[in-house]
Structures are given as C-alpha cells and as structure tokens.
Amino acid sequence: MSIKKDKFSLKDQKYMELALDLAKSRLGHTGTNPSVGCVIVKNDNIISMGWTSSGGRPHAEYNAIKNCTENLSGSKMYVTLEPCNHYGVSPPCTNIIIKSKISEVIYSVNDIDKRVHNKTNKILLSKNVKVKSGLLKNRIKHFYIPYFYNREKKLPYITGKIAISKNNLIYSKGIKKITNSSSNKFTHLIRYKNDSIMISYKTLNKDNPKLNCRLKNFKEFIPKRIILDNKLNSDRKSYLIKTSCTNNTIIFYNEANKRNISKFKKNKINPIKSSISKNKEFDIKVIMKKLYSLGCRNILIEGGNDLTNHMLKKRLFNKFYLFKSPNNLSKLVEFKEFSGLKTLNQKYKNKLKLKSNYGKDTITLYIK
C-alpha cells in the first residue's frame, strides 16, 4: 500500500520560500538552536512572520504568534522545521500553536532532535490541528545540513576560506588586499553567518585582523574569536587582544607558563590548555569538541597557509571557499605561496564544486 503524499499549491510554496528566507537571515545567530522561519497566513493574506531570536529563544513560532495583531483562529502556519513539542528552557511551541487556534500547520522537514523528531503530528492532530509536511523538503533539508551535522556529530560545522592571487600567493609585502571589493563584501557575509572565527597566532601577529562583520547594518554581529597559540606568543597589543571581553575570545595553548597565562586572563581572554602532537600541532578534533561544548556551532577558519593546509590534509572542512584574483602578486619582495592548493584538489576532487564570479575574481566552493 503506497503512502499518500501531501499536495501543495504554488501559494504554499511561496509562503514556505518566505519562511526559508527568514530562517536564512538568522543563520549563525541562534546559539545552539536551529535557525527557523515562520509565516502565518489567513484568507490568503500574510498576517504575521517570525524567526528564531538571537541566542535561540524565543522560537520562530512563538515570535510569529506573539507578533500577530489579528485573530489567529482558522489561520495556517508555515514553518521550516518541525515545531518543538517538549519542555526545555521554554514551553513547547505546540502548546502556543494549539492555544492560538491555528487550524493548520505546514512544516518542511522533521527535526533531528530525538525529543522532537516525528512527534509533533500526533500532538497537533489530537487537538484537531491539521498537519502537513515535506513542502520544499530538498531545499530546506540542504539549508539544515550544518544543524543536522551538529546534532549527529556533536561537533561544529567548519567552513574554510582563503584568498590567493593568479600566481597562487596569499601574501606579498606591501599588498593589503588580494581580492576586489565585491569579494571582500562576500567574506563579511560569510563571517555574519558563522558564530565563531578561528585563526592562528601567526595570522594575528602578521595581519592584526579584526575578524568582524563590516557590512552595513550588520556591524553589531561579532563572531567569537578563537586563536591557536601553543606558547601564547600572540601580540597583546593587537586589536583582538585589546578588544577582548568576557566569553568573546578564546586562546588554545599547550606550553605556556603561569605568568603568561595570567597576563592573558587580565585581558578577559579565556586560555584553554589543549593537547598537541609530536609535530607540535594541535589536535583540531579535540579542540572542536571543546568548542561544541562551549556553544560554538558554525566556525569559519581564516587561518593562513599552515592552519588551512593542515585542515585540508585532515579533511576537516565541511565546506571551503577558494577566492582567486585574476592578478599576479610580486615575488620580488617578501611573499608567501599557498601550499594547500594541491591538497585541496586531491582531498576534495570528488566533492561538489560550485564556481561563481565576483567582478573579475573567481570564488570556488568545495562541499564535503
């Protein structure tokens, strides 16, 4: 006996697409909870919208219902992820949905959380709320790949990024920017969509980066800064150290002395001792487990040649952006070549590759 699939109209698709756009707008800013979008419709008119709040609470469904100034009786709710049905820090969304007299809930994909997974239908149906699922399933399932990865692996979803010149240099003395302004804006968009950014102390000392999002209207969204620094050689006069505050900057070390550790603690930095290999390399998997326990879910690596190459060899990137300029950089002055290009093409050669042009720059996305 075949299972009857739910049918959806073009209007249903339009409303769910809007819910997906709302979810996308909060990606990287919902803490340990998934980013969800919600649209409420009555008589073919949108009467309210909601998305997951910063930090993960309140949930999108709660926000959409509380934002509504009209009678919700007889309305439809479109939501990207199966509404929660269990008590946690806050009551389940199914409670407020039932109480509001919404007549139908259409959600796209089931939540991977075992406390929620495939249980919402039964609860809502028992209270005479119609339920449909599977609308835009493939697109929205793709959107939730990082969240599903977090839940399954208990690890952050890792994105890598590096910019190179036409002749494969990542540095040439006197040149501050390799790529054009369009590519630089896209870099800041990637930062916006990640809750944390990791670099090595070498990158910190050489580039003195800010690691913030400088897009208009998004400047208040500052990712957590993570620095790998075995002996705590980071320049304490650098921007990241001087602007550190409670819980926004973490340094992983192994061989530093107590006096040096104390100095960084005075800068409100959280120094965490972590294991290293015989080659004096950090065990990135151990560090990622620790960061997951600290609430990091989406991490961007902007770590220069050595860290990036190490991550590529270990195939630790879930996705990787290669920015390439059409211009050569000079090798007549101090320069640095990207040694991970061959590794990237070897380790990710059978993986999905998407190529886009930003002005004359080329950005290739490798997906594991």
Reconstruct the topology from this structure.
Blueprint: H1 10-25, E1 37-42, E2 45-51, H2 60-67, E3 76-81, H3 93-99, E4 104-109, H4 120-125, E5 130-133, H5 137-143, H6 145-153, E6 157-164, E7 169-172, H7 181-192, E8 196-200, H8 201-207, E9 224-228, H9 239-242, E10 249-253, H10 258-266, E11 270-273, H11 284-293, E12 298-301, H12 304-313, E13 319-324, E14 335-337, H13 341-347, E15 352-358, E16 361-367
Parallel strand pairs: 3-4, 4-5, 6-12, 6-13, 8-9, 8-12, 9-10, 10-11
Antiparallel strand pairs: 1-2, 1-3, 7-14, 13-16, 15-16
How many H/I helical runs?
13
Can you tell me the overall shape? globular
Largest sheet: 9 strands, mixed
Helix content: 25-40%
> What is the rounded distance between the termini?
37 Å
User: What radius of gyration results from the CA coordinates?
Assistant: 23 Å
Report the count of strand segments: 16
Mean pLDDT: 93
Name the beta content range. 15-25%
Q: Give the strand order of the largest sheet, numbering strands 1, 2, ... along the chain.
A: 11-10-9-8-12-6-13-16-15
The helix/strand class is alpha/beta
* Low-pLDDT segments, ≥5 res: none
* Series of secondary-structure elements, N-terminal to C-terminal: HEEHEHEHEHHEEHEHEHEHEHEHEEHEE
Structure, explained:
By secondary structure, this protein is α/β, with parallel strands linked by helices. Helices cover 30% and strands 24% of the residues. The chain has helices at 10-25, 60-67, 93-99, 120-125, 137-143, 145-153, 181-192, 201-207, 239-242, 258-266, 284-293, 304-313, 341-347, and strands at 37-42, 45-51, 76-81, 104-109, 130-133, 157-164, 169-172, 196-200, 224-228, 249-253, 270-273, 298-301, 319-324, 335-337, 352-358, 361-367. The strands form 3 sheets. A 9-stranded mixed beta sheet has the order 11-10-9-8-12-6-13-16-15. Strands 2-1-3-4-5 form a 5-stranded mixed beta sheet.
